[in-house]
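Example record

Each entry pairs one chain with its bound ligand, pyridoxine-5'-phosphate.
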Amino acid sequence: MPMNNPDSPLRLGVNIDHVATLRNARGGADPDPVRAAVLAQNAGADGITLHLREDRRHIRDADLPAVMAAVTLPINLEMAATLEMQRIALAHRPHAVCLVPERREERTTEGGLEVARDTDRLRDYIAPLAAAGARVSLFIAPDEAQVEAAAAVGAQVVELHVGAYCEHCTAGDDAARDEELRKLFSAAALAQDLGLEVHAGHGLNFENVGPIAAIPEVVELNIGHFLIGEAVFVGLEAAIREMRRQMNLARM
Ligand code: PXP
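Structure tokens for the complex follow.
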């Protein structure tokens, strides 16, 4: 199933992890990430992204099939490249699998996947996922060696980590922001040249999304934390619609 909305030049994957984070804070059933996924679909999201972490701090095992059953949108499962996660992905067969680095002590995914130093293992790891029909994406820093390694290990997609760019935006460091943007533009162009589909994500909000949405090779943004936070004030649907508007504006 192609993750494409013909009305939109740039797809928006809504990450619902932090609805589950709120739910887990009280240990009950509310707020329900499945309800958030349905609402995101109705608000015009092109896909639903969820990250099943090793420590299950937000999404839990049962959330994945529940979300998959509730929406018709493609599901993008973010996960660490472990055997446990590979088994789960092969059992549920989401549309896409995005491999991310994971450390228990981190608050969020802090860096890109180290593909270049782990090519043999990743090639073997990806093969059964790709054979089962998943689009395999690697979450990497905008670095030439990582892009080339991603193509070499058989990934179909790279998701460029824009976290450093977002941090420079927040800090008001224009020179560092522009340097990071330059790396993102060049990594995106190289990835496309190598036949990879290009996504981007991490830390995006209304203020910083424009320049990323304007990178011509980028076809999908995955956005979570900011949208769920904004939903506290304006509701999830309004937050998603405004993000979509900003993305479209940048693309025009
Ligand atoms: N893309 C990937 C690969 C991620 O790991 C995350 C964070 O889970 C996101 C996108 C979304 O980042 P944020 O929640 O900061 O929007």
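The CA atoms of residues 90 and 128 lie 8 Å apart.
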